[in-house]
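Hi Q.,

Before the meeting this afternoon, I wanted you to have the shikimate-3-phosphate prediction in hand. No need to reply - just skim if you have a minute. The sequence and ligand are here:
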Amino acid sequence: MLEPATELTGSLKVPGDKSMSHRSIMFGAIAQGVTEVSGFLEGEDSLHTLEAFQAMGVRIERGGDGAVTLYGQGVSALIPPNDPIYLGNSGTGMRLLTGLLAGMNIPAVLTGDVSLNGRPMRRITDPLSRMGADVGTAESGTPPLHIRQTKQLCGIEYTCPMASAQVKSAVLLAGLHANGVTTVHETAVTRDHTERMLRGFGVEVVVDGLSASIRGGQQLNATSLTVPGDISSAAFFLVGASMTPGSNLLLTGVGMNPTRTGVIDILTLMGANIQITNQRVTGGEPVADLQVIGAQLQGIHVPEKLVSLAIDEFPALFVAAASAQGETIVTGAEELRVKETDRIQVMADGLRALGANITDTPDGAHIIGKRLLGGTADSCGDHRTAMSFAMASLISDGPITVLDCDNVNTSFPGFSQIAGAAGLHIVETNAG
Ligand code: S3P
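Predicted structure with the ligand bound:
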């Protein structure tokens, strides 16, 4: 339950980047040598990936506070898991692991929670089967996934029909152990953490515009890497502070990979005041501190070329739009319908229940900003919709109850404490 709040102030650091945390485990586990990771996200999603590799015989130690040591012995040391691998809520965990295991010819069964078990997987099994993999899905094209042994995979050239870093990564990771070269062509820019981090492990990945290629048979060499703060977690605070005049908030150590910064561009187009300071590079990724001064936001038509660069930030951006003067139009964002929930539907239903003027469309929404009244919003078990509805308490006249919030721990353990210290009035209850 959240009482209305007025502004966000102070300084905070969000937990480590989820996308990079998954990859740091996958790559460290199959590398040769000892990989030290700091800033690892100790959230449920990335911990499931860590446990998956422990179940495959890799020694991995957690030192607390985001420190992880992986004792990699190369690919051949991995042993097929005895039991199905449970990946919780995580599409990244499942899709990337499938590509990696299929390429390495390690038989396994991958499963997840109710949300993950309802998500589309043919987007990866189709290209993987073209490479020679045998990965079965349920009849509906959803998990559980059954990775069966085949002969060695062959590299392919694949054009990704949707903007998806998970599909791109699954194919490239299968290509890492396939014969020949594997190339993925994309139609829009998506996050490039796989390409960057593989290079950090000594793998040659050739990127040419919207195409990425990898030669099979390359070995990963252990490295040390620092995972920066997750811009997708920072996004809730960027939105919360940007839309409330009087806010003055510093977010330190935020990952600023240019394939992830769409949320800053979109908020800036809406009139937000976000200063990027202390820019540096850590572990091959740009990092910065972000100073946010509250303002009255204006509605815009979100440029479609920014959609894939802010895909996880739309639940929060819908709240920014609900506060903005005039109309905000989101188009070209149909991928939001196949995330942890149908995020267009869940945000439209929830914001409407709080008094917002929002019309959902097949690929986005039309939102006319106004003060909210308060009420009950159902996150439907989606971490990002839950945290977005929490931020709506900054533009609401009445209290807001957010239902089904447990999954906030998948990406942002400690959210309530951090948000409370910055100015939200959150009371957690066990009612959901
Ligand atoms: C991710 C890619 C995106 C994003 C997800 C993390 C990744 O998914 O939504 O939260 O780590 O590669 P899609 O590739 O399905 O767009």
